[in-house]
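Hi all, posting the design record for the shared folder.

TITLE: backbone redesign
STEP: 1 of 1
STRUCTURE INPUT:
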């Protein structure tokens, strides 16, 4: 996600392959703070997911490969990047893959847990 004036809403779809796409509400004053939605997106089902501003976004690739298409309502700003620890047990996300064999970026493991996330929305 991106913070502050650089926050983005995203419309995500998969062109080929299949993913589990996840959005987590990180708006502290929201009644759904910390809750997530997980949707299977594939080139075959053609579904899309709109991720509003104030939500963290992650995915796991369920097929051998996957190609995404994103539409964002704001420009990318590296200095505004934020993230949540992908394996935070408080989130209760079932990524539907073997996490011990997953290719996870080091930064995604080192992001803060939800309870430690600085308010940014």
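Okay, here is what came back for every position:
SEQUENCE:
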């Amino acid at each position: 996600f991106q913070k502050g004036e650089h926050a983005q809403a995203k419309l995500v779809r998969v062109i080929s392959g299949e993913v589990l796409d996840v959005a987590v509400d990180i708006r502290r004053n929201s009644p759904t703070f910390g809750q997530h939605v997980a949707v299977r997106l594939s080139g075959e089902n053609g579904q899309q997911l709109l991720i509003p501003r104030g939500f963290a976004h992650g995915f796991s690739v369920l097929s051998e490969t996957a190609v995404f298409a994103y539409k964002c309502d704001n420009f990318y700003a590296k200095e505004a990047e934020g993230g949540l620890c992908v394996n935070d047990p408080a989130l209760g996300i079932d990524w539907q893959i073997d996490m011990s064999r997953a290719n996870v970026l080091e930064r995604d493991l080192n992001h803060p847990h939800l309870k430690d996330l600085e308010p940014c929305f």
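COMMENT: The longest helix spans residues 106-110.
Let me know if anyone wants the other runs.
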